[in-house]
Design a protein that fits this description.
By secondary structure, this protein is an alpha/beta fold. The protein contains 27 helices and 31 strands. Among the domains are: about 110 residues, Helicase, Ruva Protein, domain 3, CATH 1.10.8.60; about 180 residues, 3-Layer(aba) Sandwich (Rossmann fold); about 240 residues, Ribosomal Protein S5, domain 2 (2-Layer Sandwich). β30, α25 and β31 form a beta-alpha-beta unit.
């Protein structure tokens, strides 16, 4: 047997202030590197340094372990030495306006080009009207008009002169020109014409026909002359516009001569402005509008001015190195960009100036940090991210159009090349789930950065932990701690982890504790935070979260929940469970009972039968049945029917930490030996009867201690725990004091026999050379009862056995 009654030194590992070589944290140098994460640091350096498709990072570990801080720090350090990525812009496509072109510019020159184009538009609004209002233009336009009018007038004058010679006049009517005979300068009436001699009439008609042909020919020439006039005016207009525009655009082209893409765009701008110069004239600019829709707008809603503007998608002006972006809300649009729309006349219109960047655009050429769970929770965001990484480009597509929810005027921006390192942050279950269900995940995120939740506790690591505390204090501008406060924080860190030989690397919880300890030090107007401030912060954190624990203890104190802390009872034991509320956990004692009778080798788990038992708990019960059958009657059938239940349990029971307590209750019921109710039990058991470690050991012990203290500490109360859990003990000070005073005991055991001996006060017993348990021991009583059950089962079965058939007579 191996039963150990633990002393006060064994249930808590103090932090010796002598191992801390400082008086206050003000003496300590800051620690830049994160502690306790050598594997993660190595993976981060590799993942950020390597270049290649798919070498993105996934940082897995519990929340608050410092994943984002470490990764962002290393990314920023690496990015500071990398070249700045280019600015990305969108410009108008003069051939297909719904397919804007991308434009790449050196960092910072995007804003410069945008300003220059705005200035160009403003200059065009002034220069083009001035050119067409100049004396030169008016003179030349007037000359063209007069020349055309003169040619038309000369043709008519020639006809008019010929007509006068033949005493025929050219008359202009509202419907055009006509010819009529005259005499003495007056047009002859029809009656006077009819009274003329026939020969004279025929001569006049012949002359009139000839003149009419000349007039028709002259009138047919008029449209040609007008077209010629319009063509000449068009050439003049283009000449004037070209002279004005080419000068303004030429200045810009020379400025951006080192950027062929910009000069090509400016050439297109020049041609388009010359072709549409009228939109810059004052009378065109001030045309009336209908429902705020400009008369000069194109059918797609793009104004003529916007055709020449620059839509800066991403600018790196004033930046240094590659960008490092953390996207807090990684929706599809926020990741891959979006196209906005404007309502006009009941329709949704857009153009390239309404294209907006996403996080991938802003981080392009650098590093993008995302929370994996947030990405997965946003519709289409995960698929969009994978598609961009696989294709190596960012293509902006409307979700509404992808899902065919709406059909409206939109644009199809040219895709932008993507060169980025994506860093995902998430819990381990998210990483392993993605690796299991998404075959593309392993191809895109080849570097796993696994953050450890703990680090070894030794004098060296405790000193490093103190430097971490000093760094946080300076960052948060808090009061410094003396070494007693640091020692208390180290002890609390081990307690949170549930391991006296480890320190938790949960940086968020540490930062919260430092802020709260600083608050309580301020309340007592202290300049230095001491261990009393740290302890008060810990106590207040617990007090804010332990309402439910107080209710449970109150119910037990009032007798509503049945838990005994004295006496003894057959088939009943106090088990220890943990209630986890997320940010707070507490132990709750629970009564476990067992009933047995003759049966057919069945141990009924009532929790499982009513679907309140989880699979791990059910596994523990099956192990009990296998242990009893193999240990006591290996060559006989087990004629036992037993039932196990957590009394007054109304929620799901999961885990196997109560399997040892269930076995003790079951053996007690079989042997008829009462169990001490002043002891509570936790630990799992295997098929060989060995007691295995469990979680939440500190909370379980303290939960039973609180109940015992309420009932009054008698000195014989205590808990039985697995020996392998001793290293995890970091009990509260009041529990330690009770242990030291002999008012409360903590026993460590290794085997079921140890527990039964403690709980019953009877030796468990071991088989002798003949394979027989000693008389009066627990195991002997159990085996005798089980054998009696077998005999009873045989006797019961023999009553219903059919009589043997008679033998036939011999011949």
């Amino acid at each position: 047997m191996a039963i150990t009654q633990l002393g006060a030194a064994a249930v808590f590992r103090h932090c010796d202030t002598g191992d801390l070589h400082f008086e206050t944290t003000a003496e300590l140098a800051e620690l830049e590197d994160i502690i306790g994460q050598p594997r993660a640091v190595e993976a981060v350096r590799f993942g950020i340094g390597i270049r290649g498709k798919g070498y993105n990072l996934f940082a897995l570990g519990s929340a608050g372990s410092g994943k984002r801080t470490l990764l962002q720090r290393y990314a920023e350090q690496h990015a500071s030495g990398e070249p700045m990525p280019p600015d990305w812009c969108y410009i108008h496509n003069f051939q297909q306006s719904h397919k804007p072109h991308r434009l790449s510019l050196p960092a910072g020159r995007g804003i410069e080009l945008q300003r220059d184009m705005e200035q160009l538009i403003e200059d065009l609004h002034g220069a083009i009207p001035a050119a067409f209002e100049s004396n030169e233009y008016r003179t030349r336009a007037q000359a063209i008009e007069e020349e055309i009018n003169e040619q038309q007038a000369q043709a008519l004058k020639k006809i008019h002169d010929s007509a006068e010679e033949k005493h025929i006049t050219l008359v202009q009517t509202p419907t055009g020109f006509t010819l009529a005979p005259e005499r003495d300068g007056e047009v002859l009436s029809f009656e006077d014409f009819e009274r003329l001699p026939k020969e004279q009439r025929e001569a006049i008609e012949a002359d009139t026909d000839g003149l009419q042909q000349q007039l028709s020919k002259a009138l047919h020439e008029a449209p040609r002359l007008q077209k010629e006039g319009r063509d000449r005016m068009a050439r003049l207009n283009r000449e004037m516009a070209e002279a004005t525009v080419s000068q303004l655009v030429g200045n810009l082209s020379r400025k951006y001569a080192d950027l062929p893409a910009v000069t090509a765009f400016l050439e297109e701008v020049q041609e388009d402005v010359i072709a549409n110069f009228r939109h810059f004239l004052h009378e065109e600019a001030h045309k009336p509008t209908l429902l705020n829709v400009a008369a000069g707008s194109q059918p797609d809603g793009l104004s003529w001015e916007n055709r020449y503007r620059i839509n800066i998608l991403v600018s790196h002006a004033g930046a240094a190195g590659a960008p490092v972006i953390y996207a807090d809300y990684p929706s599809y649009n926020n990741l891959l960009g979006r196209v906005e729309h404007q309502a006009q006349l009941g329709a949704l219109l857009t153009d390239f100036t309404m294209i907006r960047a996403g996080a991938l655009h802003r981080a392009n050429g650098g590093y993008l940090i995302l929370d994996a769970l947030k990405v997965l929770m946003q519709p289409f965001a995960w698929e969009g991210l994978k598609r961009a990484l696989q294709a190596g480009e960012i293509r902006i597509e409307s979700l509404a159009q992808l899902t065919s929810l709406i059909s409206t005027v939109s644009v199809e921006p040219e895709a932008i090349p993507l060169d980025i390192k994506v860093i995902l942050l998430g819990d381990r279950h998210v990483y392993y789930l993605l690796a299991y269900i998404d075959p593309e995940f392993a191809e895109l995120f080849k570097v796993a950065v696994d953050f450890n939740d703990s680090m070894e506790r030794n004098p060296e690591s405790q000193q490093l932990y103190a430097r971490v505390i000093a760094s946080m204090i300076r960052k948060e501008k808090l009061r410094h701690l003396d070494r007693t406060a640091v020692a208390r924080i180290i002890e609390h860190s081990a307690r949170l982890l549930g391991d006296s030989e480890k320190l938790a690397t949960h940086m968020r919880g540490l930062a919260d504790l430092l802020r709260e300890a600083d608050y309580w030090a301020a309340q007592r107007q202290a300049d230095i935070v001491s261990d009393r401030d740290v302890q008060q912060a810990i106590d207040k954190q617990i007090h804010r979260a332990d309402r439910l624990r107080e209710q449970v203890q109150e119910e037990i104190r009032h007798g509503t929940l049945f838990v005994d802390t004295g006496g003894s009872c057959i088939g009943r034991v106090n088990g220890l469970s943990v209630v986890d509320l997320g940010n707070f956990a507490f132990g709750r004692p629970v009564r476990i009972t067992a009933r047995v009778r003759v049966g057919d080798s069945q141990v009924v788990d009532i929790e499982r039968e009513v679907e309140l038992g989880g699979p791990i708990h059910s596994k523990g019960v099956f192990i009990l049945s296998a242990f009893i059958g193999a240990r006591y009657l290996p060559e006989l059938p087990l004629a036992l029917s037993a039932s196990l239940v957590f009394e007054q349990s109304y929620s799901e029971v999961e885990g196997d930490s109560a399997s040892s307590a269930e076995l003790f209750a079951l053996l007690s019921a079989i042997a008829g030996l009462p169990l001490m109710q002043s002891l509570a039990v936790t630990g799992s058991v295997n098929q060989h009867g060995e007691i295995q470690p469990v979680g939440g050991i500190n909370e379980k012990i303290e939960g039973f201690f609180d109940i015992c203290r309420q009932a009054g500490l008698s000195g014989d109360q205590g808990v039985i725990i697995p020996a392998s859990n001793v290293r995890h003990l970091m009990l509260r000070e009041d529990v330690r004091s009770a242990v030291e005073a002999g008012q409360f005991s903590v026993y460590a055991i290794e085997h079921v026999d140890d527990g039964m001996a403690l709980l019953t006060g009877v030796q468990a017993g071991e088989r002798d050379e003949d394979g027989v348990f000693p008389e009066g021991t627990v195991n002997r009583l159990v085996e005798e009862t089980l054998f009696r059950y077998v005999e009873n089962m045989r006797a019961f079965a023999s009553k219903f056995r059919e009589p043997d058939a008679q033998e036939p007579p011999s011949s």
